[in-house]
Design brief:
alpha/beta; Rossmann fold; 2 domains; five-stranded parallel β-sheet; five-stranded mixed β-sheet; 4 helices
Length: 200
């Protein structure tokens, strides 16, 4: 199995750190865990350049809106839906300055949705600081029907497109923002290994 081995395509995430060489900063965070990551980022320092924060809150989670408002009183945008937050990002990018630095804290789906949007504006995913927070759930690309199934928590996931039981691999496509999923019983139909939750 792949666990225990370093997979070159698998993303590596780390805690957010301010980039000193910047003309402006854009911070995008998801949920209570993302809000906390943003607060930790601001505890490091308060950059002199302009800062925009796009905060996608979550129902039932801790809300860092008030705390962030104290730090970024002029450009904090708060949304309670993913679509609204992504639309705010798309509205911000055409006016962005050269030298913009982007910081993202949230689930993998949140991070890679952002990476795909900013790519259209010439920003490579390698230029986005990413901190994985909250869930470890994965998005899985079915190599058989091309559908992407989100929020996979187990080693084997039913495809939302064709229904095949997919083994969730560690190989990741940055273009798709998803891990590769292969039919687990292709050679021995009906023989499904034990399903385990490994991405809580």
């Amino acid at each position: 199995m792949e666990r225990g081995y370093w997979i070159r395509s698998k993303p590596v995430y780390s805690a957010l750190v301010w980039q000193q060489q910047a003309n402006a900063h854009l911070v995008l965070v998801e949920g209570s865990a993302g809000g906390l990551a943003a607060m930790k980022l601001f505890q490091q320092m308060l950059p002199q350049q302009s800062i925009t924060v796009i905060y996608e809150t979550e129902a039932g989670g801790a809300d860092y809106t008030a705390a962030l408002k104290k730090v970024v009183p002029d450009d904090l945008q708060v949304f309670n839906s993913h679509d609204a937050a992504m639309k705010a990002l798309e509205a911000h990018l055409p006016e962005a300055l050269m030298g913009l630095r982007i910081y993202v804290a949230g689930s993998e789906k949140f991070m890679w949705d952002i990476a795909q949007i900013v790519l259209h504006y010439g920003v490579d995913d390698a230029d986005i600081a990413k901190e994985l927070t909250g869930t470890l759930a994965r998005s899985v690309y079915c190599v058989h029907c091309k559908a992407i199934t989100h929020n996979a928590h187990t080693n084997i996931q039913a495809c939302s497109g064709c229904g095949k039981k997919l083994f969730v691999r560690d190989h990741f496509s940055r273009r798709l923002g998803a891990y590769m999923g292969l039919m687990v019983d292709a050679e021995d139909p009906g023989q499904i290994p034990e399903i385990e939750e490994i991405y809580p």
